[in-house]
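Internal QA ticket QA-208
Title: Verify multi-chain structure generation after dependency bump
Assignee: T.L.

Test input:
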Amino acid sequence: MIEHKILFTGTVGAGKTTAIQSVSEIPVVCTDVLNSDPSLGKEMTTVALDYGEVSLARTERLRLYGTPGQERFSFMWKVLAQGALGLVILIDHTQPEPLADLETYLKYFRELIQSTACVVVISKMDESRLPAIKDFTELMQKHHMVYPVVAADVRKREQVLWILDLLLVQMEARL
Amino acid sequence: MNFTTKDNDPFEHDAPQQVNEELRTKAKYILQMFVEKLHDMGIKSAVIATSDGFDVAAVAMSEAEGTRLSALSSSISAIGDMAVKEIGTGNYHQSITIESESGYIFIMDIRNPKCPMILSVATTKDAVLGKLMYYAKQMVAKMIEV
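Actual output:
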């Protein structure tokens, strides 16, 4: 059995826990607690990590880890990034500054991104609003990072599997 | 089995109480009393934080350190709960002690139904853990009722 560690990070409320729950074949291990920050508009928030597993073939299994979104938990980002072979950055399109949000994660995870694989996922995408997908792509290029940027609904299992596929293609290309 | 607190947390349906000034004042007072009782135990910092890692009250430390310890205690406490559930030794941890070469970090949850919080204390090696735990329990009992 070949196992790969995949890390989900990104803005609070973008759907990191949801994405892992959508595809995991084991009960997802969560560290959700009551959220006391009224500006986030959600009841629970992840404070340490999420963990789930999904097998792709009889011989391949992905271990999915999710980080907390808030920057005050960045020490967990560092812990969880160890040994990861792919990074999914989820950006909530409904937040006021989605491009600046992406930049935060690009900077923090720069080393991991450049040495492994990465997919940027825009969740809750509203096509009628800017920034558009191409704005995110341009921001990545400015940082000399060429990775897929896609809009997805992470509540849907097949869409999360598609995101994981985009990662695996890159990982295989590296081998 | 799903290990979110949603499943078996008796406090699930209480909306989190906004951390208001009244709560901060009471917490600060109770925390100061606690630290005074342990004046000879090398306490470096003591913090009461919300379970999602915001400081409510902090004593004897810089503001930055209070903020940091608050976020750290939130993650560590959540991992503690996750561990006892996964291994089947209970639903919640009672306390967590981290010993290092020069001190201790001691964490105890304050299961206040309106606003779940966490006490965390950083000490030098001068701390007597039994005494620390004894006073921490008393202090947590008071904080559950505020």
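Spot checks passed. The mean pLDDT of chain A is 94.
Status: verified.
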